[in-house]
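FAQ: What does a ligand-bound record look like?

Like this one, built around T3D:
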Amino acid sequence: MFETIQYVVKNHTAWIILHRPEKLNAFTEQMNKEVTKALKQAKQDEAVRCLVITGSGRGFSAGEDLAGLEENTDYANILKKRYHPMLKELANLEKPVVAAVNGAAAGAGMSLALACDFRIVSEKASFIEAFIHIGLVPDCGNLYYLPRLVGHAKALELAILGEKISAQEAKELGLATKVIPEADFTEQVTEFAHRLANMPTKAIGLIKRYMQESWELSLEQLLEKEAYAQQAAGNTEDHKEGVNAFLNKQKAVFSGR
Ligand code: T3D
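The answer part, i.e. the structure of the complex:
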């Protein structure tokens, strides 16, 4: 069904595996379309309570496939038509999304990782704001997510100098949730995804939505939103399960409802 990605649902987790390993999973139009389709599928599938995006082979993604660029490439059109639907789908997904960064994440590949909620990073992985090396500016939400994650000054430095960031540096900057030895990577990513997939999914969705909106709101407006979100979370089965389990000194078993 897909050619440039693999899509597998297992144990309530949807795995989107970028699959052009010989090109370090560089993006083509088809890959943009397939990732967008997979994200929609995962959003609609109630059995899916966590997503993992990772790469095949030794790279996460090297961004746009540069071999496809022409002298008169309409960059704005490519971004709007191919990348923006994918990034908007990702931003509006009310389920936890993990970027399992197995190798180099460069250009739009780095942007994709930044747009996820967590970045679990192999010790062999690296991030690179590759855009500047070909005279371009960071895109695909990179200028939005990067300063929010690492602060304005550091984001400017990374975007302008375009130096490679190692996994350990990414951890120190707050870009990486954790760094994992290569040999344990798949196992630990799977464990992390399993943990997320067994949490109160609706509450996670609400946290994502309102933390995102908080950037645009006053404190008063946000307090209103929090009250609404708490009411919605308070009406879930998972809230009842959590309270009952606590009072009965048991481990809560959340259903995502
Ligand atoms: O609107 C628009 O269309 C513009 C959108 C732009 C968004 C962007 O993403 S712009 C940024 C594009 N990406 C880059 O500039 C990164 C280019 N790649 C690299 O700098 C390096 O490959 C890496 C630092 C990521 C990894 O280096 P290394 O030494 O580990 O691997 P390599 O040998 O460079 O690459 C391995 C193969 O993948 C190689 O192919 P070959 O020679 O074995 O046949 C290489 O050409 C290919 N590859 C890597 N990146 C790309 C690519 N092929 C096409 N496009 C790529 N981006």
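Follow-up question: can I read anything off the structure? Yes, for example: The chain has two domains: 5-197, 201-247.
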